[in-house]
Known about the structure:
The chain is of the alpha+beta class. It is built from 19 helices and 23 strands. A hairpin with a 5-residue loop joins strand 10 and strand 11 (286-292).
Amino acid sequence: MRKFKTESKKLLDLMINSIYTNREIFLRELISNASDAVDKLYFKSLTDSSIQLTKDQLGIDVAFDKDARTITVSDNGIGMTQEDLDRNLGTIAHSDSMAFKQENAEQQGDDVDIIGQFGVGFYSAFMVAKSVRVVSKAYGSDQAWAWESDGVEGYTIEEAQREGNGTDIILTLKDNTDEENFDQFLSEYGLKDLIKRYSNYVRYPVRMEVSKSRQKPKPEDAGDDYKPEYEQYTEVETINSMVPIWKRSKSDVQQEEYNEFYKQTFHDFTDPAATFSIHAEGALSYDALLFIPGRAPYDLYSKDYKKGLELYSSNVLIMEKCEDLLPDHYNFVRGVVDSQDLTLNISRETLQQNNQLHAIARKVEKKVTSELKKMLKNDRAAYEKFFEDFGRGLEYGIYTSYGMLKDELADLLLFYSAKEQKMVTLAEYLEAMPADQKSIYYAAGDSTDRLAKLPIVNTVLGKGYDVLLCTKDVDEFCFQAMMTYGPEAEQDAEGKDIEGTGPKELKNVASGDLDFASEEEKKEAEEAEKDNEALLAAMKEQLGDAVTKVAVSTRLTDAPSAVTTEGPVSLEMERLMSQMPDGMGEVKSQRVLELNAKHPVFQVLKDAQSAGDAEKVKLYTEILYDQALIVEGMPIADPVAYANAVTKLMA
């Protein structure tokens, strides 16, 4: 027995138990090695006219024997001599493929794509096998050789028999244990699944004998009651598709093919809403095929959802979901990225240089943004359906970036216009604004129907200004992060900003001062507050800490009262935070009870105050406050007390 070289026992143990985290990739590694061996022979045929073969004569075969507990991976590639076996398999981490790749770097072109890099993929076989036998015959040699090892101390090399050039790798699988079920690899379904998942786009056919069923011919003497009979048979079938759809010319692929690829690969039953690709060449060359789903997955907004694109290197699947390729706000995008320039780590499960991923991710992000803008412009109905499913994520992108992503994402947002009664973009809102409008107004709540009936919303509409009705939980948080929207201010000849131009502030109609009351209206409100100072003080005392103040409103027209807020926390934000864990419900808004001094109810309050009827003032104060909260969709502290107060008023 020959001993493994380079501290092999410790290193081999590292290969088997530490380098790889997923046992099922052993077949990916063996098929990749077989592909390299076939590529080397094909390359040799391109440079040596004495070798007469065509690409369709080359391939890889996979077989299994359940009784013998063996899996065999065979190729008709370049093969190995006795010295090659000793050097390549007896020396851990020696990559003959890497050496070949470096020696022929300038000559390979698109015809040859060597996958191997580190010379350790072969040893992944010992994760599932208790022994491995390699029978190989080098091209042009008359003698085959067999390498065999149990992956512990060493290996043997002896003469063997093989009909043609190439290599057979025979794995004798380990016995099952309570923790591990190795029988899963000894089935037609199990092996086909691994081939399709990890090696579907290896450039040579991966063949396997598969079981099929067919109907037997109907006997000539069969009666009317004859029932069709079926028989089982086997035939060799190519399992992999070889040519990735993302590397085919777009003009050669029908949209139906893209749709079918999307549905099969990402297990969706609906066609994608959009399909687009990237083909980059240069210092980092890669191909990407990306999809916008036609519907949101059920778990999109759950903590279990995992974003990411499938990452391939030289057509071999490296990661099923590479999270680094997508920003969180585009977590819904699905697709594949394939590059032969990626610097992989030794297990080929992750990458060594994240800057390569970052470069691809930036291009992917820009492409998605561009395609969404194109959809918004060219297919409004499709975009509105997309935004209904995925718009929340775009808004979260602005909110979680503290507004840094608003230049990229704000133009993609849609909101319901109370004036237009349809979804509009912020740009469309600005375009329709009257010349005297200073801000972008919005109202936040749980439904557009309820928001449209709010007194303050109707007041703003009465001024000729539109109000965006925001019903998603993230809408107001997004707007607060954005603060403003619109193009930069225009400048005069002296370089000063022209008044009325520039970004517009985003204002909640139920928060703060909307600043569109006339000077006369403001003066009337101030006088009403001064004349009724005692009444407002009595109402504030009755409401206590529930409000920060009671004031005369400059914006109410028909309603007797409204609850507004001061500061950054609106009523809607308070409502949302009350539903959150970890004590977020303790965040309270600074409520203001605004009164309509021109409403008949205000006159009743004034009369009660003048008559010294404190009980009536108290009753009206409680009713007005609770009514205002109900209109805003907020819970009231004591529904029973409110019902009793209304009953008392009616009696």
